[in-house]
Amino acid sequence: MGRTRAFDRDVALERALEEFWRQGYEATSVAGLTAAMGINPPSLYAAYGDKRRLFGEAVRRYQETHGAFAARALAGEPTARAAVGRLLREAAEVYTDPAHPPGCMIISAGVNTTDPGVIGELREHREAGKAAIRRRVERDVETGLLPPETDAGALATFFASVIQGMSTQARDGAAREDLHAVATLAMRAWP
Amino acid sequence: MGRTRAFDRDVALERALEEFWRQGYEATSVAGLTAAMGINPPSLYAAYGDKRRLFGEAVRRYQETHGAFAARALAGEPTARAAVGRLLREAAEVYTDPAHPPGCMIISAGVNTTDPGVIGELREHREAGKAAIRRRVERDVETGLLPPETDAGALATFFASVIQGMSTQARDGAAREDLHAVATLAMRAWP
DNA sequence: TCCTTTCTTTAGTGCCCGCTACAAAATAAC
DNA sequence: GTTATTTTGTAGCGGGCACTAAAGAAAGGA
């Protein structure tokens, strides 16, 4: 019983997500959030807790929607090489999609933030992504698709670096074809 | 004539530089700056103007000291390939030097900043670095050291991406040898 | 209809931000 | 020593920050 909520919780969360994506955690103010979400501060605090927890929900939602292409690419190709190639190509697409802010929220939203919880949460997501690449490469080494001397850790760090660089380039205004060229050149690193 | 300044302007500027380097422009407060510099706010404003102009001086100083290795690498090797190889290796060294904050100030200090002047100033430095790589590659294409079909712009964007990714990795705590491995793999992109 | 519960809006709270007025202290010129 | 000039420390300015107390408005249950 009681008065029903006048706004759509998921729609408002998506608006908040895009504010955090565009400006990062610290540079995004509660006033800016409420303006983007179309609600007043007490509604935000009643529905999401506080700014920090709203950010946590936004990160989770990002992983499940805009960022989900990465896990799909790594799981949906017969070889590590094809999986990473798809991962890089799709990153070029997503990072330059004009329908939302450029680059990757997980990579950029915690930069220059004071809150150690925010920094750690995003860094763990980035490390998890790097570890996923590494495991995909190791799988192909174990099955003989890649030579046994392949350094899976180095390849994972390299491709993670390239993806993080592509995100920075996208935020600097790089065009989609520029990032596709980066992806193509990065694929030459395979043994 | 008048009272002489009680602090060393250059030493205090270096302290401010490291604050901006570690935390970025917006997350660095004037209170934090004055504490790091060992002075009071009126001394900061008398000596440097305001926070924005102090940041501009810090960026200029960074380019002339910690960041000068890049121009030296591009100018001091006989081939573009050797120059970029040295650039990547030295970036791995500098970005993980425990004597100062990790990563590159030009790449990270403007992320998630509201001030468009700060954003634009740092982006122009990044674009200038990318253009310098491109010109170095073009020079070797013109002299016949690289095949005429070489895409200098794509190579420049690729290596700029790798360097920006290395900076992010360093800020995430990557070891020096990890970044050296990234540099080695990136060098496989050459035609 | 009336009561209870929840969401809504208004209007703030205390705090830290970049920045500065002011007067005391210190130095150079004479 | 005196004066003019600059730097210094103290103390505080207006403003935006994250967050909330209070009361009205809207819904369900009796």
Our Rg estimate of chain A from Cα atoms comes to: 19 Å
Query: Describe the biggest sheet of chain A?
Result: none
**Percent of residues of chain A in beta strands?**
under 5%
Q: What is the number of strand segments of chain A?
A: 0
Mean pLDDT of chain A comes to 98
| CATH superfamily heading of the largest domain in chain A | Tetracycline Repressor, domain 2
Give helix % range of chain A.
55-70%
Spatial gap, N to C terminus of chain A: 63 Å
Total individual domains of chain A: 2
CATH topology of the largest domain in chain A: Tetracycline Repressor, domain 2
Element order of chain A: H for helix, E for strand: HHHHHHHHHH
Quickly give the CATH architecture of the largest domain in chain A.
Answer: Orthogonal Bundle
Q: Indicate the overall shape of chain A.
A: elongated
Low-confidence stretches of chain A: none
Largest interface, counted by CB within 8 Å of the partner chain's CB = A-B, 42 and 42 residues
The CATH class of the largest domain in chain A is: Mainly Alpha
Structural class, from helix and strand content of chain A? Answer: mainly alpha
Tally of DSSP helical segments of chain A: 10
What oligomeric state do these chains adopt? homodimer
